[in-house]
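Write out this protein's structure.
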Amino acid sequence: MDGETFLIEPNAVVILGFRSVLSLIGLTTAVAGYWMMERKWENDGAAVLLRRPMSSQRQQSQKTGPETGVANQNHSSNKHDDNDDSDDIVAKYMALPEPPSQASDAARDNVCASAEMVLCGQMFHENGCRDFVRVGTCDSFDRNYHPTKAPADPEGENMSAAAAQYYYAEPSAVFQAKLEAAMPLPVVLLVGCGLWSLSLFLDPSIGGFRLYINVWNVLGFLLAALVGPIIAYPVRQATLERNTDRKQKACVSLVVVLVLLVGVVIADPKVQNARIWYISVIGVMLLVGSYPILQHSCRMGRRWDLKGKPKSNDEIFVHTMGTPLLFWGVALFWIGTNSVQMADLNFTYLPLFTNVSRSWVVFVAGMLMIVPAQLALDLAFDQGSELVAVSESYSIYKLDGSTVKNIVASVEWLPSGYIGTALESPIWWSLGWILMALCCFLPFGVTSLTIQQFCAMSICVAMAPLYACFVVPAFWKNDLTAFPKCCFVYCAVMISWAVAIGINGGIALILSFMGVFLVLAGQRFTLFERKRGIPRPHLPMIESSPHIDGLHTPNPSPQVYGIGHPLYAIGWFLLCLSMSVPM
């Protein structure tokens, strides 16, 4: 708080004044606007594709094959299957006779009917996959076109007016308007980026309001002002048009802008973050790494870009490191662009103890062990890993490791079996808590042992068996009696941990209570957003009788861009900051 001092002098501080607060408000608003845009596109965009009405002619074509009167059963059974062999479809299509240039209308209609039977009989989607429509229409006989490749030009993906009238009950222009309504202009994102860019003109070395202008913060303002428009216009438009080349160029330009911005802020003498210049660099790396993970995990990500259709609920990944990396990257970027070396004791400031081992070990335990292990367990359970009893007498369970093993199997040199066993059991998660308990005494030899350190250490050690042997097994087994009780005990222990961390008051108490509240709230929301959790509006977990196989009724609307994981990630970041303060 005001005038607070610590046992060890921090390596750098972030003064909670006009600049840092305005920057935090701007970045928070920008990230919230981006998250809302992706969430709306994830839900409304997929709904537009899956609910696109077919014409009466198309419905009749699905029921009976052209000219044959034979029911087209293969189409209806495979209409949502993404494992079709597109090369076989193209080979059958290319084997059809090419109509002569002077052919009569009847001859051309016969060839088109044959093409319709080949393509619709395999996989002719009504959910927006216009690549297949383009192959099968009578006005296109491009034998070199492959249905799994996006068209080179934006207009090439739109079918002709005649084809749209035949296959769909609504015109292409109406369909495109619905897509654009599913991803509207992110005004909140633009406003947030504008506030953030304006904050670069404020002096970070004082808590008050003081403007300053030099070549570095002017360049920083110009670069920061480009971030929002790049996302709102070229990236968004390329997504709507499924123009992968333009989208890739826009994303590369965004990365270049962020890298240049980091260099400009580091060079600004007013920021004075030479001691922790790498914080901003790590933040940008996390931001860049989060985007492909989220795009490969959601419904309307890479599948839409490449094939023009959404993923099913079974194919998406709700629990990934994409969300934590995004929000941790923004937090580190905010710290790196607002930190200074000297604290103004007249104002509240955030201490950064990067000069002691305690901070590094805390962040390794929390952000590299506990959080990834928790997400791996949730992901494996949602994807169908089987529950295995290690010791039923001690209520120790694990998952069979099949989900993580299949994901890691693509990297040949990694031992996928051992990694799957470690991440789908409480081992890695428990080791993270044990390491967190060790941090209570770091740095060694600086202070004498205190009751606070032993209390915090005891809670960390107790957290591993409590969560691994009671909370998680009760959820996996769908034990409606034990699970609520275990959750209450878990919440009480987490609150006790916050008290033990910040019992001396000051910034550590504020950060610890905020962190615990966000972690618990995030886990609560995640139960409603995961694939196999608690469906709304029911508070019980699905079935009235407990069972050991862990099968839960699938959530009809799992959310990759939900609320739970952002709160959980931010909460753990604040907890790590509070634990980094020496006791």
